[in-house]
Amino acid sequence: MVILGIETSCDETSAAIIKDGVLLSNIVSSQIEEHVKFGGVVPEVASRLHAENITLVIRKALEEAKVTLDDLDAVAVTRGPGLVGALHVGIQAAKTICMLYNIPLIPVNHLIGHIYANEFVKPLEYPLLAVIVSGGHSELVLMKEELDFQVLGQTRDDAIGESYDKVARVLGLPYPGGVPIDQNAKEGEHIYKFPTPLHGENTYDLSYSGLKTNVINLVNTLQMKGEPYKMQDICRSFQDVAVGQVIERTLKAVNDFDIKNVVVCGGVSANSYLRSKMKEELDKLGVNLMIPPIWSCTDNAAMIAKAGEVLYKHKLFAPLTISPDPNWRVEDYKSF
Ligand code: KG4
Ligand code: ZN
User: Fold this and answer.
1) 92 Cβ contact list (under 8 Å, min separation 6)
2) Is the peptide bond preceding residue 127 cis, with omega within 30 degrees of 0?
3) Which pLDDT value is given to residue 104?
4) Has residue 201 got a pLDDT over 90?
């Protein structure tokens, strides 16, 4: 079975081909260079660039996989969550191919794509706790079996990746801020004490707005007073608390639900400190940890095609009248 995956929810235009579980191609055209001058993603610019690039990206994915549109058995496309105009471009492309070639259209929830990116390592083992940490989302999801999602907690305000991007901006680091903060934190000391949001509270929710504001206020105060500081120390102090919160919530859920398998995913799962600290803490408890390979942590169509294979088995096909849902919840993945 050959599936074309399409992802256009934010600032990567991506297409991938998967054949019987084997990834044949995964083309990712990043728009970051265009958005970097604005310090973040500009939705109108994102839609325009997706529209300009989508045909080329799909063509490249087919060429690299050495398949043609005639060979496709289905198209899996991100329907949400994401930027509505950006999602539209991928969905229109998917609908067009499905109509012309009379093949099923599989709408994929972007976060489910992130979770199933782990199947590029090995098949998921249930029950599991999925820890989704990305630019738009921070969620803890309990999966008792395949495609069974119970959201235990989510962000009350900003997502973790968003806080990385905002903190990077105030420190004069480029967008997106995750990688530069991750790198600079390695050369810094944890000398600034920021409170851990929701520390010790009986919740699986996360919160990043207060931490982000604390860091921004600190930098502004230091600059106003003309006090010298090492940007690396601020990166380290911020990152320890940002990642510490994810670890604290994960350990609470692991303990409360007697979890044996944890899956971390989303753009922030590329973070080196999160990867090592999570492993260290879960090893102590004898809990298995899965994290996708770095290439499939951030947005890509391979993960959408992978999730598409799972949804195909359950015949979750959509009519060609579907629209994007910018706020599509994981548990509602069957409603479109
Ligand atoms: O999953 P993703 O590509 O897009 C969304 O679905 O949001 O995640 C992008 C986010 C950005 O906020 C970026 O700063 C963050 O992932 N990110 C990282 C790292 N690499 C990417 N955050 C922390 N450390 C990293 N190494
Ligand atoms: Zn994502």
Assistant:
1) none
2) yes
3) 98
4) yes
How far apart are alpha carbons 25 and 65 in whole angstroms?
5
Which residue's C-alpha comes closest to atom 22 of ligand 1? Answer: 178
Coil vs helix vs strand at 121: coil
Give mean pLDDT, residues 193-207.
95
Tokens of 142: 């309990």
Q: Please report the DSSP string for 17-29 in residue order.
A: EEETTEEEEEEEE
pLDDT at 190: 98
Q: Which whole-number Å values give the CA distances from 58 to 35, 63, 64, 66, in the listed order?
A: 22, 9, 10, 12
Q: What is the pLDDT of residues 203-249, one digit of tens each?
A: 999 999 999 999 999 999 999 999 999 999 999 999 999 999 999 99
Tokens of 61: 């994915």
Ligand 1, atom 18, residue with closest C-alpha: 178
Query: Per-residue pLDDT for 38 more than 90?
Result: no
Q: Best substitution site from 9, 134, 162, 175 to test ligand 1's pocket, by max atoms within 8 Å of Cβ?
A: 134
Q: What is the pTM of this model?
A: 0.96
pLDDT in tens, 103-143: 999 999 999 999 999 999 999 999 999 999 999 999 999 99
Could you give the C-alpha distances from 170 to 126, 176, 181, 286, in angstroms and in order?
Answer: 41, 12, 12, 39
- Ligand 1, atom 19: closest residue by C-alpha: 178
Backbone angles phi, psi at 304, to 5 degrees: -70, -40
Show the tokens assigned to 50.
């997706």
In the reported structure, the alpha carbon of residue 110 is separated from the centroid of ligand 2 by a whole-number distance in angstroms of 6
CA angle 173/175/179 to nearest 5° reads 75
CA distances from 284 to 106, 132, 251, 280, 281 (A): 40, 22, 11, 7, 5
pLDDT at 39: 82
Query: Which residues lie closer than 8 Å to 102 by C-beta, 6 or more apart?
Result: none
Q: How many CB atoms lie within 10 A of CB 27?
A: 24
Cα distances from 142 to residues 34, 115, 172, 266, in angstroms, run: 37, 11, 38, 16
